[in-house]
Amino acid sequence: MTNDQAQITAVGDHHYAITLREGEDVVQLVVYADPATVTLIASDRLDERRLVENTLTFLLQRQRADDLPPVLDLADVAAGYDAWSSEMSAKLNATGRERSGQAQPRQEGPECLRGGGCSAVSPP
Fold it and tell me: Which domain does 99 fall in, by range?
């Protein structure tokens, strides 16, 4: 599945409703773009929606849409996947919209997104 198959709609302050198709099924998610997490990887010029789109692509490369929790917080994604911050920074840097700094999680993977006890550590 690609991001092209996703419908992303801003539904409030830093909240995005996402509708995806997984085979015959429709998967709906809500993503919270935690401002503190967003500032770890991007400048004020960042299009927050673009970060949500890139995060969705990142997650779908690692797991099925119907395996994602219905509510996602970017802070949890940062805590759950070591590579998320650096990959998002690299994508944003390619367009000149990035500043350095990233959270470093203790454990990586989908289990962190399901409440597996992962927590981010502040950058040095």
Answer: 3-121
